[in-house]
């Protein structure tokens, strides 16, 4: 006989299932950021998951495979559509499509799933959530400084404290000036140089040096072609990086960069000087935001100031080993993206963070307490013939703002109480035949019971505790609310 085909239960590589606690943590983070964006005058926007492939452009970090970096399909009109790989390219399409009707600057924020058809790895997923804020039609360093100041507020709203994060700021035109002086300013080479530098924190100077030259083979044997700079060019770029990471006050660094800037770099140094003055006026301290000319960002559409947010506090795994999160948020100016559609210059700047990565870091630091679910109450179905009454109890509890459910599975009272325990319920409500005849319900305080189980070993002392008590049926909601308010 032919065997029945049974598919293997497995996830595609690079995609993950998210549990309730992870989802709540991510929602808490998005809500905190959204409240900041609203206070700063930004409006929500939602764009579709699919865009036409030509509208997305070729701005993926994986420059060597621009057409393979997205998940694409052909529509019935033979046009290629692709799942969005970020929220910025769809914003540019929206702004261009609705340009005449938008109040400019157009200030929007958005959060949602994005997809990248890239090689998955530890902490590198093909599907993840981003949360962005952008100003379209905003020219000049003032809009960039505002984004950086708002990013600081998002970090604080997320639960980070003084000294636990720093925003590193640069202007990509500084390096463009260096490349112009080397005669290496063609776009392909420029992007390979930028992407090599963007890997400095992960690969170190030695790895960057290889990527600036002929290329680098990673541990898996995959080879990444380099920028092809000669030995003098590599030394010049590495020298720039060494000087770029010098410490000091923002104003001092901006002045030094202005003295050494060449070509396009002059405008970059001037922008940093103005950003410093504006950040100071906004109350953003030297500890919160610093200048670091080694920050370049890997995406190809940035045209001016760029910035990254780095955690200065390192959470640890249970074995004590440090968790590495790298940059948890970033942003920058992209003045040419809308112009791809309109043919006219439309300045824009924005800020973005990966929700999953940032939420994981905050959870590891214990900074997402607000993500805890509201207390759950489980109404035990002691008598299946009385389900209508149990549903009525759960409805009353929900009407009072509590999470509540009547047990609809199978099993005796012991199994149902075990279910409530495993769900992490705060209370179980029990109404058997005896309680119903007396017009009462039993309330079992499961959280208190768990605490007593750990703290009490004497049986008589255990009996004295009130982890289970009876109340009139009419006082069910009031009794549970009083218990919760007592905590």
TrEMBL record:
Q: Which GO terms describe its molecular function?
A: ATP binding; histidine-tRNA ligase activity
ATP-binding as a keyword? Answer: yes
Per UniProt, residues of the Aminoacyl-transfer RNA synthetases class-II family profile domain are 38-375
Keyword terms: Aminoacyl-tRNA synthetase, ATP-binding, Cytoplasm, Ligase, Nucleotide-binding, Protein biosynthesis
Superkingdom: Bacteria
An example GO BP is: histidyl-tRNA aminoacylation
Specify one Pfam family: tRNA-synt_His
The record, for Gene3D superfamilies, names: Anticodon-binding domain, Bira Bifunctional Protein, Domain 2
Q: Give the catalytic activity.
A: tRNA(His) + L-histidine + ATP = L-histidyl-tRNA(His) + AMP + diphosphate + H(+)
Q: What is its EC number?
A: 6.1.1.21
- What protein family is recorded? Belongs to the class-II aminoacyl-tRNA synthetase family.
Per its record, how is this protein called by name?
Answer: Histidine--tRNA ligase
Q: Which organism is it from?
A: Alkalicaulis satelles
Q: What is the lineage of its organism?
A: Bacteria, Pseudomonadati, Pseudomonadota, Alphaproteobacteria, Maricaulales
UniProt lists the gene as hisS
């Amino acid at each position: 006989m032919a065997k029945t085909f049974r598919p293997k239960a497995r996830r595609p590589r690079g995609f993950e299932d998210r549990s309730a606690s992870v989802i709540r943590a991510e929602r808490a983070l998005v809500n905190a950021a959204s409240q900041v964006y609203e206070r700063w005058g930004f409006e929500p926007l939602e764009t579709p998951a699919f865009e036409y492939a030509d509208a997305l452009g070729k701005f993926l970090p994986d420059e060597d495979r621009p057409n393979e970096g997205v998940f694409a399909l052909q529509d019935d009109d033979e046009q290629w559509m692709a799942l969005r790989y970020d929220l910025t390219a769809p914003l540019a399409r929206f702004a261009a499509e609705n340009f005449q009707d938008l109040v400019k600057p157009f200030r929007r924020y958005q959060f949602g799933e994005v997809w990248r058809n890239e090689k998955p790895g530890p902490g590198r997923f093909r599907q993840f959530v981003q949360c962005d804020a952008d100003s379209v039609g905003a020219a000049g360093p003032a809009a960039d400084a505002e984004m950086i100041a708002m990013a600081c507020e998002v970090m604080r709203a997320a639960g980070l404290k003084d000294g636990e994060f720093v925003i590193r700021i640069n202007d990509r035109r500084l390096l463009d000036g260096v490349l112009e002086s080397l005669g290496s300013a063609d776009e392909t080479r420029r992007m390979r140089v930028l992407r090599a530098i963007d890997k400095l924190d992960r690969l170190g100077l030695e790895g960057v040096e290889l990527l600036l030259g002929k290329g680098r083979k990673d541990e898996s044997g995959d080879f990444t072609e380099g920028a092809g700079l000669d030995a003098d060019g590599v030394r010049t770029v590495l020298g720039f990086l060494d000087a770029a990471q010098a410490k000091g006050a923002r104003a001092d660094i901006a002045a030094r960069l202005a003295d050494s800037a060449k070509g396009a770099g002059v405008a970059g140094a001037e922008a940093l000087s103005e950003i410093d003055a504006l950040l100071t006026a906004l109350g953003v301290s030297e500890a919160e935001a610093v200048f670091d000319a080694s920050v370049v960002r890997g995406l190809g559409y940035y045209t001016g100031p760029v910035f990254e947010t780095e955690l200065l506090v390192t959470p640890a795994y249970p074995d004590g080993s440090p968790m590495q999160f790298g940059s948890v948020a970033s942003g920058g100016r992209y003045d040419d993206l809308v112009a791809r559609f309109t043919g006219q210059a439309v300045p824009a700047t924005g800020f973005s963070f990966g929700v999953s990565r940032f939420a994981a870091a905050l959870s590891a630091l214990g900074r997402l307490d607000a993500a805890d679910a509201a207390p759950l109450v489980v109404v035990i179905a002691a008598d299946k013939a009385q389900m209508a009454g149990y549903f009525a109890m759960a409805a009353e509890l929900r009407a009072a703002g509590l999470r509540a459910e009547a047990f609809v599975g199978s099993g005796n009272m012991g199994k149902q109480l075990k279910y409530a325990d495993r769900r992490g319920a705060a209370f179980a409500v029990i109404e058997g035949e005896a309680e119903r005849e007396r017009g009462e319900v039993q309330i079992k305080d499961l959280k208190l019971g768990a605490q007593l189980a750990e703290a009490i070993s004497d049986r008589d002392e255990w009996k004295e505790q009130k982890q289970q008590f009876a109340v009139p049926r009419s006082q069910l909601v009031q009794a549970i609310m009083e218990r919760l308010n007592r905590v």
